[in-house]
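Module 6 notes. Inverse folding takes a fixed backbone as the condition and produces residue identities as the prediction. Think of it as a translation problem where the source language is geometry and the target language is the twenty amino acids. Below is one complete input and output pair. Work through it position by position during the lab.
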């Protein structure tokens, strides 16, 4: 009967391999988590950028006032930027979603993302006139997710610009 050479893995080799894999996982998990947070923040910033661009574009093409803000259930612009952020035509310029106004789009802000709006004037919203210009509601959106931060700056001419994360 022929003899077979049985080659196997010893317990020591398995334990060393498991030790190496666990050390690599310990190093990689925080880096991957941080990358995930950065991607989630970047996605939220890009979605908000697109909403602002849509609002400005509609103000220019439809020659009407357009507002961007988080709407309360009564149609008023909320001071707290969370939940649904909406862009709507604001035909009378009162910065409220009234009868006759058209909802252009709504963006559901993910729960872990926080937005702070710092604008000129006393308004808590972004408002474009018929020429797509903001005049006194220009400002900065600061988006944060854990320790990551990005900004979306709106110029007086209504042009949005994303500033890289800190």
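Target side of the pair, the amino acids:
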């Amino acid at each position: 009967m022929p003899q077979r050479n049985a080659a196997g893995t010893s317990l020591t080799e398995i334990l060393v391999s498991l030790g190496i894999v666990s050390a690599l996982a310990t190093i990689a998990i925080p880096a991957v988590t941080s990358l995930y947070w950065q991607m989630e923040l970047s996605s939220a910033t890009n979605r908000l950028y697109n909403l602002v661009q849509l609002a400005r574009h509609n103000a220019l093409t439809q020659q009407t006032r357009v507002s961007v803000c988080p709407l309360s259930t009564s149609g008023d612009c909320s001071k707290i930027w969370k939940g649904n952020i909406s862009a709507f035509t604001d035909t009378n310029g009162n910065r409220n979603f009234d009868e006759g106004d058209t909802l252009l789009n709504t963006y559901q802000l993910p729960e872990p993302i926080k937005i702070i709006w710092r604008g000129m004037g006393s308004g808590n919203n972004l408002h474009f006139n018929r020429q797509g210009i903001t005049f006194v509601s220009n400002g900065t959106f600061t988006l944060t997710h854990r320790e990551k931060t990005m900004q979306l700056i709106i110029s007086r001419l209504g042009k949005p610009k994303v500033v890289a994360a800190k």
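Reference fact for the lab report: The chain has one domain: 11-163.
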